[in-house]
Write a structure and sequence with these properties.
This protein is an alpha/beta fold. The chain has 19 helices and 14 strands. The strands form two sheets. A seven-stranded parallel sheet has the order 3-4-2-5-6-1-7, sandwiched between helices.
Length: 490
């Protein structure tokens, strides 16, 4: 089915052909007519299936149908979780609009760079805005952008945007959008909780689920290699030397690990660099450009590079550290095997993460054979989970249970066999001398202070009533000397 049969204009079809879009993919064939009809959409398809073009082409057709105005106001807003994905979508829009009869102005705004150039670029308005939520809110607070004319909202990698990390920012953006609009949600994965939240945002949406079949599944060879955690870098160097991969994307769990692994590879003669959230935007763009051009052989990255980044003909993805969730595993390995190319994904499985990898296999409905490389055989044993002793340790306990001891009796017996500690000796001493317990309060429970009882004041002697006559008598006696005491000598 050609693109012309999907309802696109001839100029747009020709522009798509010039950019290499020969035949529409399954998600493009299903989503483009539905978007042109104007209804809400919830679309799920595997990575590398062409979801970006599935919403970019209808947005461009709607922009072409709009009459030219004096002031450009954004008709479409595309929200994305990462800077790299925002830059990539903006580049795809500009490439598709090159051969169109009108000039498209796309504003790509994201954090990590100065806001002033982005405010200057928005002075004349924009036709389509591609943004990350945080920087978009900054521009709205500076009155550099208005969203009152937005007719279509697109959430690419919607499961990540609807996650708790973006919940507050996304809610603030939605409050500033017109209530009547078209909502388009695209992602490769929609967990049940996120899907329920997405359906609350949509109004009678059309649901498109492109199931992964043998014909549509990406051609990715998945491997699992058992290795000790401290030998993963040596094994990575061995694999790079034994194979002829020109470019490799290595995923780690933290920024410190990315810097450490990239530095070790670089010191051993492998062109490598790190990509993580602490890198400036210029550094992030430079290392991605170096990897795509072949000047860089290994890129060691955190999950910031796991979503949406398109590196053409990337042969290998290595999970140096396993992802936190099966969803992240899907997005990681989806960086290879894109657009019909063949790819390979290798996961390093150490003893302490073997159980986690089994969970990933269960959620992905696959079972990989554990490989071992000569010279890198694992020597570590899987640690036993705390609080759950094995069957061998349970022998005496099981015997006591069978002898009729209850759990409380068993606990008392175990405490009696336990060596006396300082606190236990103190409790035993207090039990032997209960009078000391009453005389001295326990630690941590101060004794209540009691105020002494106030005694009633002694009764005062009776005094005569103070009358004017008494006052005159007192005044008349004031000049007389007091009478001599009875015991006083004359």
């Amino acid at each position: 089915m050609p693109f012309a049969s999907l309802g696109l204009q001839p100029d747009l079809v020709q522009s798509a052909l010039e950019q290499g879009y020969i035949q529409p993919t399954a998600i493009q064939s299903a989503a483009i007519p539905a978007i042109l009809q104007g209804g809400d959409l919830l679309a799920t398809a595997q990575t590398g299936s062409g979801k970006t073009a599935a919403f970019c082409l209808p947005l461009l057709q709607r922009w072409l149908a709009k009459p030219r105005g004096i002031l450009r106001q954004p008709q479409a807003l595309i929200l994305l979780p990462t800077r790299e994905l925002a830059a990539q979508v903006g580049e795809i829009l500009r490439d598709l609009a090159q051969a169109l009869p009108r000039k498209l102005k796309v504003a790509v705004v994201y954090g990590g760079v100065s806001i002033n150039p982005q405010m200057m670029a928005l002075r004349g308005g924009a036709d389509i805005v591609v943004a990350t939520p945080g920087r978009l809110l900054d521009l709205l607070d500076h009155n550099a952008l208005r969203l009152s004319a937005v007719k279509t909202l697109v959430l690419d990698e919607a499961d990540r945007l609807l996650d708790l990390g973006f919940a507050d920012e996304l809610g603030s953006v939605l409050d500033r959008l017109p209530p009547t609009r078209q909502n388009l949600l695209f992602s490769a994965t929609f967990p049940p909780a996120v899907r329920a939240l997405a359906e609350k945002l949509l109004n009678q949406p059309l649901r498109i689920d492109i199931e992964q079949t043998a014909a549509t599944a990406p051609d990715i060879l998945q491997r699992a290699i058992e290795v000790d955690a401290d030998k993963r870098t040596l094994l990575l160097r061995h694999l790079l030397a034994a194979n002829h991969w020109d470019r490799v994307l290595v995923f780690v769990a933290s920024r410190q690990a990315a810097d450490r692994v990239a530095d070790k590879l670089h010191r051993n003669g492998v062109p490598a660099a790190a990509l993580h959230g602490d890198c400036s935007q210029s550094q992030r763009g430079q290392v991605l450009a170096d990897l795509k051009s072949g000047r860089l052989r290994v890129l060691v990255a955190t999950d910031v590079a796991a979503r949406g980044i398109d590196i053409a003909r990337l042969p290998l993805v290595v999970n140096y550290d396993l992802p936190r969730s099966p969803v992240d595993y899907t997005h990681r390995i989806g960086r290879t095997g894109r657009a019909g190319a063949r790819g390979e994904a290798i996961s390093f499985v150490s003893a302490d993460c073997a159980a986690h990898f089994r969970l990933i296999e269960k959620r992905q409905q696959l079972r990989l054979t554990r490989e071992r490389i000569d010279g890198f055989e694992p020597t570590e044993a899987a640690a036993r989970p705390p609080g759950r002793p094995g069957r061998l340790d349970d022998g005496p306990r099981r015997q006591r249970r069978h002898q009729g001891q209850t759990q409380e009796q068993e606990g008392q017996a175990a405490r009696s066999r336990r060596p006396a500690t300082g606190r236990r000796r103190l409790r035993q001493a207090r039990a032997a001398a209960p009078q000391m317990e009453r005389a001295r309060p326990r630690r941590g429970f101060p004794q209540a202070k009691t105020r002494p009882r106030r005694l009633a004041p002694p009764p005062r002697p009776e005094q005569a009533e103070c009358t004017p006559a008494n006052r005159r008598a007192d005044n008349s006696d004031a000049g007389k000397s007091p009478p001599a005491s009875r015991n006083e000598n004359p």
